[in-house]
Specification:
- The protein has 390 residues and is mostly helical.
- Helices cover 53% and strands 3% of the residues.
- It has helices at residues 45-48, 53-62, 68-83, 91-94, 104-118, 124-146, 162-169, 174-190, 199-209, 214-225, 233-244, 249-261, 279-291, 296-313, 326-335, 344-365; strands at 30-33, 37-40, 43-44.
- It has a 3-stranded antiparallel sheet.
- Helix 5 (104-118) crosses helix 6.
- The longest helix is centred in the middle third of the chain and has 23 residues, at 124-146.
- It binds amidocarboxymethyldethia coenzyme *A (AMX).
- Amidocarboxymethyldethia coenzyme *A (AMX) binds next to loops.
Amino acid sequence: MTEDDSLFTITEGHLDSGMRGIPVGTCKTSFVDPIEGVHYVGYPVEDLANLEEEDVIYLLMHKRLPTEEESEAFRTELAHRAMEMPTGALRVLESLTTGSSGHPMDWLSMGIMALGAADTTGDVRTDSMNLIARMPELMARIFLLRGGKKENLQPSKPELGLVENFTHMLGMTGEEAERMNRVLRFFFILHLDHGGGNLSTFTGKAVASGRATVYASIASAMNALSGPLHGRANQACLEFVQRIGTDDPDEIESFVRAELAAKRPIFGFGHGVLRAEDPRARLLIGLGAEVCPDDENYRIVKTLREVVPPILKEHPKIKNPYPNVDLGSGSLLHAIGFRKPEYYTTFFGWARVAGICAQIMDERNARDGRGTPIYRPKYIPINQPHRRLE
Ligand code: AMX
């Protein structure tokens, strides 16, 4: 490909389409094949789903898996950075007082900004590594503070690894902790990255392109993720499943048809790029068969997976009638003990921080270190005839 090769022809129909499919840049961390789903630096995500989460983050940052020594050094660096966390900055969250004020994604975004206000170095790698290292404690503090149990926070043990330290700080032990760690680590790896153009990643990189800090960029990305058509779909999907309340296929069909007639989205289905079932949906539903086969929500999810695609196919405008990643994840999180769906997007966000940081690092290093220029797509003015005040 040379600089002058034409990649895409933009027609008027592409305008006001959310930039759907328009190439705007390159991505080194991951790509989404419409049929095969997401690949991290070339590996299909299912090959990586049972690795240590830190090794997969290393892959996104360095474009190859670490050797044993590199893995050890990376984990040690993250652990060291976690210990240096400016926890005092998070007192700002305590001022929100009651657990019911705002959505947990608001708290996540504010928490990230507070960490940045306390400790921004301006070096993109340092700030990214600090933030990735400190996310488990931010998450644990948000969960406990909002739950009115801040005194239950166990002292951080970053040497346990990112996911295990989080469940440890929440006070989980024994088999319950093991089950949580298994599901959360799997969920975490599957959600780390999803190409360059998904809304949260794009937002994070757009903000970073103006040379805003990593913290400001990632908080912006988290705000983008918080919408129900994007990251909050995992919350919406479990609420949807709970509203259905039965795994009877006929009742589910009537429910889905009524939702469509009321012009409401069928959560857990559809995608901007994928044109087949998201492999991550298959992997999560597969994990559910191992972890919670008889769980009520899980059984509803399995029936939805069968019943919904033929119904959505009746609507030719819906380009992908198949399950997306959010279909199964909520039922699993619920089954392992996270009973409040409003928290689920924070898990998605926590994971995605690493992928977006890796992409921001790549964009800052682009053009021989000059970085990707500040984002500036073109909008074509309409209905604005030149005029003057008399
Ligand atoms: N339920 C109802 N309508 C749907 C639908 C669904 N699951 N998927 C698509 N549609 C509708 C769109 O709203 C759009 O309608 P419009 O022309 O009246 O605006 C039309 O079908 C065409 O949409 P599309 O090109 O197939 O998809 P899109 O790229 O515009 O939207 C998405 C993608 C994910 C927002 C959409 O499929 C949707 O709303 N799904 C339900 C919410 C959901 O599960 N989101 C999670 C996505 C994954 C993630 O980011 N976490």
